Amino acid sequence: MEFHIGISSVQEIDKMNILQSSLLAMTRALNPFFNYNKSNLLIIIDGNAKPNLKNITCKNIIKGDQKSISIAAASVIAKIHRDKIMKTLSIEFPLYDWENNMGYGTKKHSQGLRYNGITRHHRKSFKPIKTFIQKNY
Q1: Cα 6 to Cα 77: distance, rounded to the nearest angstrom
Q2: How do residues 73-114 score in pLDDT, each as one tens digit?
Q3: What is the pLDDT confidence band of residue 38, given thresholds at 50, 70 and 90?
Q4: Are 107 and 77 in a shared domain?
Q5: Is the pTM of this model over 0.90?
Q6: Would 44 be classed as within a structural domain?
Q7: Mean pLDDT for the stretch of residues 56-73
Q8: Are residues 66 and 124 both part of a single domain?
Q9: Based on the domain organization, do 31 and 68 belong to the same domain?
Q10: In angstroms, rounded to a whole number, what is the distance separating the alpha carbons of residues 42 and 59?
Q11: What is the CA radius of gyration of the chain?
Q12: Could you tell me the CA-to-CA distances from 95 to 79, 111, 114 in Å, in that order?
């Protein structure tokens, strides 16, 4: 089995929105597979959006992580990778409780924002951060 992970930066997310940056990350994850025989390649994607890939068949599956073991496995791999990133951020920025919120706001993370401000890792287009910026800067 082979898998690859695609990532979009905070700046890309803020510039193009979360959906488009997710599709960009999918394309990046799929790039290593483009050298394969594309006639036998089927990409299954959780949800209703898919990247625009030439000559590659993509199939969307709503609630795919509940219907496909492959999508469920990809979801677990993505979450483990995200959790590692959050743990790394918590070492660099220990006052934000990233190791416990894993990308979801917690009371301690909100306190970290309130007392220390935002970092370059906060998405400025994310409504709670956008509101924080409007009130504090």
Answers
A1: 11
A2: 999 999 999 999 999 999 999 999 998 887 678 899 989 999
A3: low
A4: no
A5: no
A6: yes
A7: 95
A8: no
A9: yes
A10: 7
A11: 17
A12: 22, 9, 11
Written as one letter, the residue type at 57 is T
**What pLDDT, in 10s, does the model give residues 14-27?**
999 999 999 999 99
CA separation for the pair 53, 44 (Å, rounded): 13
Q: Please provide the DSSP assignment of the chain as one string.
A: ---------HHHHHHH-HHHHHHHHHHHHHGGGGGS-GGG-EEEEESS-----TT-EEEEETTHHHH-HHHHHHHHHHHHHHHHHHHHHHHH-GGG-HHHHTTS--HHHHHHHHHH---TTS-TTSHHHHHHHHHH-
User: What CATH number does the domain containing 54 carry?
Assistant: 3.30.420.10
- Whether 126 is covered by a domain: the verdict is yes
The two three-digit tokens of residue 16, written as one number: 């193009």
Q: Give the pLDDT score at 33.
A: 81
* Residue span of the structural domain in which 127 resides: 93-137
User: What is the count of structural domains for the chain?
Assistant: 2
Tell me the one-letter amino acid at 25. Answer: A
Kindly state whether residues 6 and 68 are assigned to the same domain: yes
127 in a structural domain: yes
For residues 85 and 27, give the distance between their C-alpha atoms in angstroms, rounded to a whole number.
20
